[in-house]
Amino acid sequence: MDKNNIVIDANSTEDALRLGARALGVKNDMVAVLSEQPLPNGNTRYQLAPKSESADESIEHYLSFVERQMQDFEIAGIVKGMSKDDLETRGVLNAEIAESEHGHHRVDRTFGPMQFSENVEYQECDAVLTQDEHWMNHLENLACITEKEILVTIRGIAKQDVFKRFIDPQDKHLVLNQPSKELFVTISGDVAGRLLLCKGRLLLLPRDIDADLLIHNISNSMLATGDITPPYGEGKPLTLDKIIDLLKARGVLFGIKTQAIETALSKSLADRVKMENICFARGMPPISGTDAKVETFFSDEVGNEDFTILADGHIDYHRKVVIPMAHKGDLLARVSLPSTGQAGMDIFGNMITSPPGSAHPLYPGEGVRTGTDEREFYALRDGQICMNLDTISVLPTYQVVGNVDYHSGNIEFDGNIQITGSILPGFTVRAKGDIQVFGNIESATVETGRDLLVKGGIFGTTQIPIKVGRHLVVHHLQNASVEVEGNVHILHSCLHSQVETSGEFQCIEQKGTLLGGTLITLRGAEIRHVGSDAGTPTRLILGQDFLVRKKIKEAQTALDFVNAGLVKIENYLAPLLAMLSKQKISPDAEQSQRLKVVIDRRKELLAHQTLIKNRIQRLDRSANLMSGVRLKVVGSIFPDVKVQIGGVPWHPESELTSVEISLDPSNNHIRAVHMHHL
């Protein structure tokens, strides 16, 4: 099939031509049907191709759909990664910086109007040289001139013009002389050195150069750095005392690093190298004062009490959740005094004050007062203690007497909610704290930031899951869906429900039955009976974090969206690029700019695609907990139950009793061991 041909499934020729025109970037009447093939679903598969048209019309037809264009050179550059930006990024278009090539020593006596004296050597160079050791090494074989020796004679040019035309601006040692009534100018040097001719201008580099010190980067007052240039020839070296004097002359009085300076001086002199960015002095930054500390007289985390063994041998888990509560007048917290910190000093000897610590890191919120010194915090009423950032509060519990129904309306509360009746179908209850329901939850929306305790059951919430920020304790579940970030404790039974928990699942008291539905738990489960002899499908997935799976699902949705966008762009872009390449057609400037926008957008989507794929891979690696996850069945587990631990499937061939099921890491197989053997 020709690469310009496309295949469209449609229920009519008209629809096929319309869709084909959009995909090919042409008008409807410019699409030809090559073949038709009926499909089992009643549609027809059409093979389409663009009709031949003029080059200009083809370009504009495609671009009317693509809405992005560029010049022929830019198209090839972007597609192949050879655009100006790409080449500059790779350094292809950057000017390479290479070491200057210097000419040989010259003994020519004339250079333009300049007449060089006998025995005067000079060297031509294309670069302006600096007086450091690197350039001096290139001039060691160039003969030195003596002080006041006449080097060059220039005739017929005024003295003031000689400086402008023949003396390098960097030069500091060439001297011009014009004998009285003579029409020529002589040039000599006030020091012995080597003569250069840089781009037609004279420059005298002294033979002996003293060591040099450059101090920089002292504007921030905390750091002084600089460069040490070694002496050349018989030039004078720097000493530690000289450098310290120069630093003091610049106002640097504190934090002078004598050891670092001595080390740099020694290396510069021994190796004849320039030492750059030496730390000459460093200030002492101030140490900030510490904030006041908060001592609390309660636990701001909800904890777990040990279970209680009742007289009849049963285990009572009803008081497992412990919520921090306060009584009126209780001391809740005490704040210490902040420290003042330690002052610093900059390199100029100026003291830098240190900021003191914050004196009030804790503030009284609702239901809390401070003592006379404002450092102690007391409860004004009974209620739940809540720490929210830097505020401590005692929140009351909102109580609904009876049912949540049309009389009460929907309820949202920042603290705890207590409902003496049931939550009826269609109503919503949300709390940032705990929710306690004495009755049932019936097809309602319930979200809690912490614990949910239901003395009755949860029914018919499969469409909208109950969301629990920490632990769930409920008598029974039936046709329900719950998402719990902590542990799930069911007192009686869980029937035909969807349970997802990032903690442990427990259902061993009373009937203790898990029948039908799906249980997904990260930390394992302990159940009395799983499944039944009636063949009811029941599924358990252990060692999987449903919260991570939700993030993977969200990322996959985003990836699907990006992929769809790429497909749309490619459907329009690929035929256009193929046509431009095949027919060697160059779009105009406006069209080129529009095409470039499309190609840039494709690059961006491809980058997004890679990022999202990497995120999904990382999340997938952390979604499963492989070791230490166990299913304990104290009663029976039936053959209708399917178990998956760490992605490994298993199901019992027959009814098993009192077994512990886990993943054997040595062979990645699931094993069921009778608990009497453990």
Rg computed from alpha carbons, rounded to a whole number of angstroms: 43 Å
Shape: extended
How is the biggest beta sheet arranged? 22 strands, mixed
- What ranges have pLDDT less than 50 throughout 5 or more consecutive residues? 68-80, 90-104, 302-309, 315-323
Helical amount: 10-25%
Oligomeric assembly:
single chain
Number of helices: 10
Chain-averaged pLDDT: 80
Return the domain count.
6
Question: What class would the helix/strand composition place it in?
Answer: alpha/beta
Q: What is the strand content?
A: 25-35%
State the distance separating the first and last CA atoms: 67 Å
How many beta-strand elements? 51
What is the fold's blueprint, element by element?
Elements: E1 6-10, H1 13-24, E2 31-38, E3 44-50, H2 55-66, H3 72-79, H4 84-89, E4 102-106, E5 110-111, E6 114-116, E7 122-125, H5 133-137, E8 150-155, H6 159-166, E9 174-177, E10 184-189, E11 193-198, E12 201-206, E13 212-216, E14 223-229, H7 240-249, H8 258-271, E15 275-282, E16 294-296, E17 303-304, E18 308-309, E19 315-316, E20 321-322, E21 325-326, E22 331-335, E23 344-345, E24 351-352, E25 363-364, E26 368-370, E27 376-379, E28 383-388, E29 391-395, E30 397-400, E31 411-413, E32 416-419, E33 428-431, E34 435-437, E35 441-442, E36 445-448, E37 452-459, E38 466-468, E39 472-478, E40 481-484, E41 488-501, E42 505-507, E43 513-521, E44 525-527, E45 529-530, E46 538-542, H9 546-583, H10 589-622, E47 630-637, E48 641-645, E49 648-650, E50 656-664, E51 669-674
Parallel strand pairs: 7-11, 25-29, 30-32, 31-33, 32-34, 33-36, 34-37, 35-37, 36-38, 37-39, 38-40, 39-41, 40-41, 41-42, 41-43, 42-44, 43-45, 43-46, 44-47, 46-48
Antiparallel strand pairs: 1-3, 2-3, 4-7, 5-6, 6-8, 8-10, 9-10, 11-12, 13-14, 14-15, 16-22, 17-20, 18-19, 21-28, 22-27, 23-24, 26-27, 28-29, 47-50, 48-49, 50-51
Helix pairs in contact: 2-9, 3-10, 9-10
